[in-house]
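cache lookup: miss for this entity combination. No prior model stored, computing from scratch. Input as submitted by user K.M.:
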Amino acid sequence: MNKSKMYHNGFVFPVILIFSIFFIIPMVISFYFSLTVWNLDSVRFIGLDNFKTLLHSGPLITGFKNTFIYIIFGSGGVTVISFMIAVFLTSRIRTKNLLRSVVFFPNLVSSVAVGITFIALMHPSKGMINALIKALGGSSISFLGDPKIAIFSTIAVMLWKGFSIATVIYIAGITSIDPGYFEAAAIDGAHGWKKLRYITIPLTKDSINTVLMLSVIGSFRNFDLIWALTGGGPGYATDNVASSIYKQYTLGFYGLSTAGNVILLITTALLIFPLQRLLRGKGDE
Amino acid sequence: MRRKVISIILLATLVFNMVGCGKAEPAKPQEPGQQQNTGNEAREDLDSGNGADTEDTKPFEGVTLSLMLTNTSGMEGLQAVIEKAEEKFGFKIELDNTGSGGTEYNSLVRTRLISGEMADILYYNAGAVLKKQHPEDYFMDLSGNKAIMERLDETFIKTVSVGKETYGVPVSSSQAGGILYNKAKYKELGLEVPHTWADFLANCEKAKEAGETAVISSFGSGWCQIVPSLGNYYNVHSAYPDFAERLEAGKAKFAELPEATKSISKCADLIPYINEDFMATTYDDACDRFAQGEGVHFIMLTQALSNIYSLYGKEVTDNIGVFGVPGDNPDDHGLTIWMPNCLYGNKDSKNKDAIMAFFEFYISDEALDTYASFSPPDGPYLVKGFEMPENVYPLVKEDMQAYFDAGKVYPAMEFEVSLEDGQFAALISELTLGVISTEKAAQTYDENLKQSAIQLGYQWD
């Protein structure tokens, strides 16, 4: 690695400059503004009051709860289900290429369009899904209007949209496995499940880690789809941390919403760093 | 080798971008801060306009004014008035339609004000929402202009003033937030206009028994659900005449004063009577369904009439009546009214005279007639001495006017109190869905208002 340094260190400078202007400096400034009442032109220092308010406010706590539901069901779902799809799509089937494009399609549609489409599909009285349920003899479900169901409807849409990238990562991982392993396993008499358990899964561990990491981060910062689909409603039932902070922002509580962002930054860091270490460590084994 | 090439290309792009940034910046000081991107054009127009001045007597020939607004129901009327004004004064008004609604428009207005990029004229709310933007720092004071001040209604002036300064002229008429009802259905079901809340609920019950949707509700748009609560403000004020001051001082609480709590419990009372798909129904859906005869009541701002009128015409709007959200005393059945959106002039605009002339013209009989010929008024006008035009909805001419004549009207809370709870709609959704109780909703409402007080810098203990 070090035998001949290809570039001068100065080449890092533009990146560091841009990174500090757009990330480091705003981050440091935001720590200050999180301690104030701020209306963009006048600032009043109030100490830790914003944090106290936020930690006692129902919406943000609901936001945290929901974020964890999104992580567990959303990221978990993406990680597991898209692995299955990838295994299916790398097996010997005829329409492989067509199916791969089909699976990738949802990723090409913008989140807002997906949101609007699913609002129509899930409409309790006019939606296609409910028309189907009624035709099959069920009674209509208020997918996005019932606070108990809405979050799972949102997760379902997220999964639908989230599969594609994860599946592509998995496909890349699976196809890069040396076919020799499978042949050797076949000679030893391993089939189906055993091949999957002892060859495919261990050898795609890196892809699994990547997908898991990406989807956890994705669940944390997911905003556009939730906003387009439910606007965080009904009530606060589908709000995650990001959308509840955005709501504070639109209300003109700039100091308060900055404090929310600081909290979000800290929790994301607290969650991601250990997770990364854990998964990296496992990958080295 | 290839890596080297790629790195060089990447680096080159970065450097170019930065040079680009560097170049863009010095351009800023040339624009003296207040004009929008139309500023340069305006200046050019001015130069060319000066030459043409000799042959034309129009006072503001060549001036271009920008007007920031968002989608609104009375757009045609506004445009017609602008056209007339352009003809008369010679200036050009360029509409900058941001197309964003509600809270997003608020943020946009805020950022443009702060960054000094506000248009010459702003289309914006009156009352609490305006006052949160610190109008004294940004808008032209109209209080020195007698022609304007003497034309405007006093109640209205209060909602667009801070201290002795006044900032806005009304874009359209006032409107009411009340219970719209289908007159034909009322006749069919043998119902009478109720004067107490209990009577109203009894009417709903009868409608429900007859198999009708008693109340059309549209929670899908994120604001309609709060109209019943806000519409109850006449009753709150009537029970506690000093409610507004006490609320602003942090001494009155919705959870503690029984008549105020009713603003919230009334929403809970409606639960058995609303349409099943209320969460997915949007404002436009609801107007549509109400116009087509579905639903006996629709608790809404009377601006819905303009919406329905533009879709279905006069026959349908003639069939709609309105009454205020009733209280408990049948002799004190009043109506809560809403102030219209207003136009505000940018303090830093270079063309203040043109703006002032436009505002004066905007509240003249000629302009108001023009506006009304496109969008009939949703309520009485707040301009003194203006005769209502011919094409008025019966709802306005008969129902609303009766409340005005009897003096039983009062502006909604947002026009009297600067505190505001932007999350009230979510709260009412939770209440209606049974997630929280009335008591809890009222307490949360009080807390959210307190948050707004902190933001405004009020000192509560």
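stored under new cache key. Chain B touches chain A through 39 residues (CB under 8 Å).
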